[in-house]
Amino acid sequence: MLMPKKLKHRKWHKGRGSGKRLATQKTSVAFGEHGLKAMTESWITSRQIEAARRAMVRSVKRGGKTWIRIFPDHPVTFHGNENTMGSGKGAVDHYVAVVRAGTVMFEISGVTEEQAREAMRLAAHKLPVKTKFVSKQ
User: What pLDDT, in 10s, does the model give residues 18-73?
Assistant: First the structure.
């Protein structure tokens, strides 16, 4: 699973977003021929990224080349159920990638458009965002 080697700060603030912010970076297909673009904003965990990657790779029978354009570098803490209020912030539980609407998350090349569309459809089922299949213009 993906996770950062080291961070400047171990625990981060949550960062309350409005939910209506659009992506300004990674908005077009750069490396491959086809891509999977997020249409809504969400946190995507490293487990979800790995599940989507496996679905894509197995769908194209390890053919072609895939790129993951997002990286989970935002730590999420967890405090436990039966702890009293106070006693500080919890330990880091997992890492997420903060994805805004319009971000291209995955790219693929070296396969036909039908194969790429099917691979992206299977990957999209593993993710908590609405997605759209895009191609390079």
Answer: 777 899 999 999 999 999 999 999 999 999 999 999 999 999 998 899 999 999 99
Q: What is the pLDDT of residues 92-137, one digit of tens each?
A: 999 999 999 999 999 999 999 999 999 999 999 999 999 999 999 7
Instruction: Please state the pTM of the whole predicted model.
Output: 0.92
CATH class of the domain comprising 43-79+92-135: alpha beta
Domain ranges of the chain: 43-79+92-135
Q: What would the DSSP string read from start to end of the chain?
A: ----S--SSSS-------S-PBPSSS-S--SSSEEEEESS-EEEEHHHHHHHHHHHHHHTTT-SEEEE-----EEEEE--SSPPS-S---EEEEEEEEE-BT-EEEEEESS-HHHHHHHHHHHHTTSSS-EEEEE--
